[in-house]
Amino acid sequence: DGGITQSPKYLFRKEGQNVTLSCEQNLNHDAMYWYRQDPGQGLRLIYYSQIVNDFQKGDIAEGYSVSREKKESFPLTVTSAQKNPTAFYLCASNAGSDNSPLHFGNGTRLTVT
Amino acid sequence: GENVEQHPSTLSVQEGDSAVIKCTYSDSASNYFPWYKQELGKRPQLIIDIRSNVGEKKDQRIAVTLNKTAKHFSLHITETQPEDSAVYFCAAGLVGGTSYGKLTFGQGTILTVHP
């Protein structure tokens, strides 16, 4: 998607290694989010950021870390402390206003073996 | 916190039939209910949403109904077509500020439309 870019599309890592997933948006959105998708469980919120240099934990933040140094970028690091890191990770953004729906990136499928 | 239950998990219909997917939510404070369509390996895309001050909303072949008293909302697709085949997710959240992005999602419904 031209608005939100996630890279890479597929990522493979060995157990015990940290890995960083990239998310960039050119929509000038203030708010950005990371969701995790597992089969049969829908999407679950990991972290979100309302403004540069600020972010909050979502429902399943343990084992993850984020940074928001630039408005356009919200990278997610999956640490070795995350017990079940293999999943489909979706980055999203919105303008943070009442009339701003959520836009998703195309996702990164992470496989840890 | 909010909990959203979605049924059925799979739904198979013939082309031209209607499809209905139902969701219930637990937090009476939730006032924003979007529906997303996700094709295989792709990103979820918003197809319709409704706020709690509205009981029904339509957009061509798609409609959503909301019953706040019973805390459930439903997606209705009429005259289904093979291209409607996808996974559909309901979600619940709060209107206002960044709350649009803090959504609790249902487990998803795999809709298959047979030609």
Which key phrases capture this entry?
heterodimer, A: 113 residues, mainly beta, seven-stranded mixed β-sheet, four-stranded antiparallel β-sheet, 50% strand, B: 115 residues, six-stranded mixed β-sheet, five-stranded antiparallel β-sheet, 53% strand, globular
Overview of the structural elements:
The complex is a heterodimer of chains A (113) and B (115). Helices cover 0% and strands 50% of the residues of chain A. Chain A is built from no helices and eleven strands. In chain A, the strands form two sheets. In chain A, strands 2, 4, 5, 6, 9, 10 and 11 form a seven-stranded mixed beta sheet that branches. Chain A is globular, with a radius of gyration of 13 Å. Helices cover 0% and strands 53% of the residues of chain B. Chain B contains no helices and eleven strands.
Structural shape of chain B: globular
Instruction: Please tally the β strands of chain A and state the result.
Output: 11
Arithmetic mean pLDDT of chain A:
91
Question: Helical stretch count of chain A?
Answer: 0
Strand content of chain B: over 45%
Counted beta strands of chain B: 11
Largest sheet data of chain B? 6 strands, mixed
| Largest interface (CB < 8 Å) | A-B, 28 and 27 residues
Strand residue percentage of chain A: over 45%
End-to-end CA span of chain B: 41 Å
How many helices of chain B in DSSP terms?
0
Structural class of chain A: mainly beta
